[in-house]
Amino acid sequence: MSRILRLALLIADTPAPSIVSKEGDYLVQYTRLLQSSIQNYGLDVSLKIDPYDVVNEMALPTEEGLKDIDGIMITGSAASAYGDVPWINNLADFMKHVINNHPRVRVVGICFGHQIVARAMGGTVTKNPLGMEVAVTEFALTEAAKQFFKTNRNGIKIQEMHQDYVSEIPPNFVNLGSTPMCAIQGLLKPSHVLTIQGHPEFTAAVVKGILTSRVGVFSPEEVEKYSARAELEHDGIWLGKTFIEFILDGEVKADDENENATSHV
C-alpha cells in the first residue's frame, strides 16, 4: 500500500483567468507538479491535498487539523509578503506559530511562500532594486544546499517570476543558493522547513501567460526574451520529488536517483 502524503496547500492567489482556463489554478498546478514527480521518479506515494483559501476566506488548518497532516505548502502570489493587510498578517502569524510549536509538520514555501516564512521567522523581505527575475534561471547552490540535496551539482534551474525577495535570512535558517540578482534563493531549517524562491510548479505556458497578462509591466522585447527562456529545460519535477521526500522524512525513495535529471512539469 502506498504512503499517503497528507498536505495542506495554502493558496495565496488566483492566476489570471487566461491562465486558469489553460493551465489551471494553483491547486491544479501544484497537484500536477507533485503527481508528475511521483510518476517520474516511481515514488510509492498517493496524495491527499486539502486546499485553503488564505486570501478571501482567511482559511487555515486548525490545531486539530495540524495533527492530521504531514506538511504545509504555501503557494506563490502577486501580493507582497511584507504587506500590512489582514490576510498576509494572519498567514505570517500562523506560520510563525506552526514552525515554533509544531516541529512534526514539515513546511514548504514557494516564492511568496518562501518570503512569508522568512518574514514570519524574523527575516527581511523587500523589493529588489535590481528589478524582476523572470523565466528559467540557474541558481548556484551553497555547500549546505549540496549536502541537503545530496548532490555534487553546482546549480539548479527553475522558473522565476518575482521582484520581492528575502534580503536577510531569519535566525536558525541557512541559504540554499543565489543568483546575481537574488542572493537568497531558498531557505532550510533542517528536518522542518524548506523554501524556494522560484516556481517549480510553473510550466512555460504559465510564465508566458503572466508575461502577456501583466500589461505595461513587461516591454514587447522583454516578453519575447523571457518567453524564449521559459521554454528551457528546468528542474521542476526533480524539486517536486525533493519536496515529497522532505515532507515524508525519507519514508519514500525515488527509483531513479539520477541527481542530474532535468525535467519539465
Automatic annotation (TrEMBL):
<dbReference type="InterPro" id="IPR029062">
    <property type="entry name" value="Class_I_gatase-like"/>
</dbReference>
<feature type="domain" description="Glutamine amidotransferase">
    <location>
        <begin position="25"/>
        <end position="204"/>
    </location>
</feature>
<dbReference type="GO" id="GO:0005634">
    <property type="term" value="C:nucleus"/>
</dbReference>
<dbReference type="InterPro" id="IPR017926">
    <property type="entry name" value="GATASE"/>
</dbReference>
<dbReference type="Pfam" id="PF00117">
    <property type="entry name" value="GATase"/>
</dbReference>
<dbReference type="GO" id="GO:0005829">
    <property type="term" value="C:cytosol"/>
</dbReference>
<dbReference type="InterPro" id="IPR044992">
    <property type="entry name" value="ChyE-like"/>
</dbReference>
<protein>
    <submittedName>
        <fullName>7684_t:CDS:1</fullName>
    </submittedName>
</protein>
